[in-house]
UniProtKB/TrEMBL annotation:
SMART domains: TPR. It is a peripheral membrane protein. TPR repeats lie at residues 112-145. The keyword Hydrolase does not apply. CDD domains: SNAP (cd15832). This is OLC1v1026929C4. It comes from the Eukaryota. Belongs to the SNAP family. It is found in: Membrane. GO terms for molecular function: soluble NSF attachment protein activity; syntaxin binding.
Length: 221
């Protein structure tokens, strides 16, 4: 691993030297990008995750200088996946950068995917309120791209965390809506009773006797 890190440091020094020198037609950014990419890969092989993440961020900056936003977004995502092993906050920051760039170039499916990843990181960090915010962003984008199964997976997470935070009306609304959507789907209809059960439990937790009675009548499946 030490050999890989030494190689990575050498690639990184060469990349920095390229950036500080002169070049015709901006090719120094392309040359530096190639070297930063090699540096990041070598850092990964050496399991030096923070240095790998930092190298990918430098790679992203080179792509931005070359007006290659798609490649820059991918580099930020690669940085995030390295930082995920050591620094959740830095990972989230890089994923945010990737999302913003993918949104700018109309790659909504990729943006949704990385919003979901951010939500999972907040979930891992036990920050349920922020996890809800990003699962909602992901669900909205997945729905706009007609990826409804994944959208509903995100919405189930929102309902779960909302109930944990005692936001019972929000959780009930989501569980009932997913149940309605699932009724006419041959693959999903078997999960309807489970969604209504979760909604019913939230009704019980809310403690509104009239609402519970009305819900029992509505939940006849």
């Amino acid at each position: 691993m030490a050999d890989q890190i030494a190689r990575a440091e050498d690639f990184e020094k060469k990349a920095e030297k390229k950036l500080s020198g002169w070049a015709i037609f901006g090719s120094k950014y392309e040359d530096a990008a190639e070297l930063f990419d090699k540096a990041a890969n070598s850092y990964k092989l050496g399991k030096s995750w923070d240095q790998a993440g930092a190298a990918y961020v430098k790679l992203a900056n080179c792509y931005l200088k070359s007006d290659s936003r798609h490649e820059a977004a991918n580099a930020y995502a690669d940085a995030a996946h390295c930082y995920k092993k050591t620094n959740i906050r830095e990972s989230i920051s890089c994923l945010e950068q990737a999302v913003n760039m993918f949104m700018d170039i109309g790659r909504l499916n990729m943006s949704a995917r990385y919003y979901k990843e951010i939500a999972e990181l907040y979930e891992q960090d036990q920050d349920l309120e922020k996890a809800i915010v990003y699962y909602e962003k992901a669900a909205d984008l997945f729905q706009s791209e007609d990826v409804n199964t994944t959208a509903n997976q995100c919405r189930q997470k929102i309902a779960q965390f909302a109930s944990q935070l005692e936001q019972y009306p929000k959780a009930i609304e989501i569980y009932e809506d997913i149940a309605r959507q699932s009724l006419n789907n041959a693959l999903l209809k078997y999960g309807v009773k489970g969604h209504l059960l979760n909604a019913g439990i939230c009704q019980l937790c809310k403690g509104d006797v009239v609402a519970i009675h009305n819900a029992l009548e509505r939940y006849q499946v």
